[in-house]
Amino acid sequence: MISQNIKVAVDAVVFGYVERQLQLLLIKQKYGSEKNKWALPGGFVLDHEDLDTAVTRELKEETGITLAYLEQLYTFGAVKRDNRQRVVSIAYLGLINPKKFKLTASTDALEVGWFAIDALPPLAFDHQEIVAKGLERLQNKISYKPIGFELLNTEFPFSNIENLYQTILNKPIDRRNFRKKLMSFGILEETDKISKPESGRPAKLFRFNTKKYKALEQKGFHFEIKFA
Amino acid sequence: MISQNIKVAVDAVVFGYVERQLQLLLIKQKYGSEKNKWALPGGFVLDHEDLDTAVTRELKEETGITLAYLEQLYTFGAVKRDNRQRVVSIAYLGLINPKKFKLTASTDALEVGWFAIDALPPLAFDHQEIVAKGLERLQNKISYKPIGFELLNTEFPFSNIENLYQTILNKPIDRRNFRKKLMSFGILEETDKISKPESGRPAKLFRFNTKKYKALEQKGFHFEIKFA
DNA sequence: TCAAAAGTGTTGGCGCTACACCCATGT
DNA sequence: ACATGGGTGTAGCGCCAACACTTTTGA
């Protein structure tokens, strides 16, 4: 067999959504040439573990988080992306509701944190590029698959989804049309609960209809939201 | 640095279109446990070469072909996908007009060939799965990006495109509606030439308007072809 | 004159966009 | 009473689906 000196790693672009902001999960590098820079959670794949197992494991180890949604994003393999050693990294896209987990820095005592997507610190390696790809994918995907609910509480006022879409797509949407369309899919169920907002009128809380949700995941959605 | 014993390879799912058939480019394995089975062209990445360079090189070496279109498809990394050794393979999707190249088996004297997509021989490793993923991607992509022209001659009768779409999407389309829609994008230019068919009425030949084509590549298309 | 494929328009319906005011609550 | 966000209906238009006959050529 040929000799080859390339390492295989995984990295995770994990998005969260809190207070009308799209957030990204980062850890602070403790070792290496990029010490003290923030980076995507991730690491080397073990010889006997599948790729998605590797991401899941690394995330758990480094941040304490277990994802609600995970898909393969893209593989980054440019020769010069890490200058110590050739590393090919399979990037994954993950979604999680940050409120559902407490961040716990790993035993290596790295720092872990959520950062607003439009105020990221400088990132290690080519992680900037990976994040860009992840964001692009998220924006596309949310327009044709009912993901994005993974980012919210299980019961939420309608305005949460509305704002989530506006935030992720980064454009204003027409509230009435959006609501009509989304409701027409039948994936939202009213609960009998009511939110108690800080100000303004209380809102009904909604929950997912998981059956319809699964069905839609197959068939595909379609949103092409208008400017206001 | 950690010790890790994983090899990195690339594989190419290359589609061609000839005589109303979607074809796949395969090579016959000469060595290894899967000797004499057909497989996707591909091979190990060199330490100092980028991933896409690697695919391009392997394709050239193994088949003599240089692609008109190439994009990263998906990375396959299951532990057990190759039982000799752990191999992570980054699969690429390629399109080419088979008429534009003569297949030349490599110096290792492998066999090379085009196979109709619905009559593939048994494939080595998990290549069946990779092909499935490639086909799925092609079917999606062709509905929202003006790819697919890479598969045709530079000048072609309209019916070529029409058939290509039917073949790839594997469903009948409404000829009138399809033509209207496609023409409305302005990416096809009439030439003054006329095809000389084996039978039936001669047809005008078309060519691409490369400018519009580039523009569309950005904005995205939209086809959602109906059953007849 | 027949077979084979090319070429071509219209209509109806559906879904999307555009758009603005009232309601329920807390302060 | 005011501020804050929640909740709601309609009309017009554009786009898409459905649909079939005529034309050109070669045999």
Automatic annotation (TrEMBL), chains A, B:
Top-rank taxon: Bacteria
Residue ranges the record marks as coiled coil: none
Keywords: Hydrolase
Family annotation (InterPro entries): NUDIX_hydrolase-like_dom_sf (IPR015797), NUDIX_hydrolase_CS (IPR020084), NUDIX_hydrolase_dom (IPR000086), WH-like_DNA-bd_sf (IPR036388), WH_DNA-bd_sf (IPR036390), WHD_NrtR (IPR054105)
Pfam families in the record: NUDIX, WHD_NrtR
Residue ranges of domain Nudix hydrolase in the record: 5-137
Gene Ontology terms for molecular function: hydrolase activity
Name of the protein: NUDIX hydrolase
Lineage: Bacteria, Pseudomonadati, Bacteroidota, Flavobacteriia, Flavobacteriales
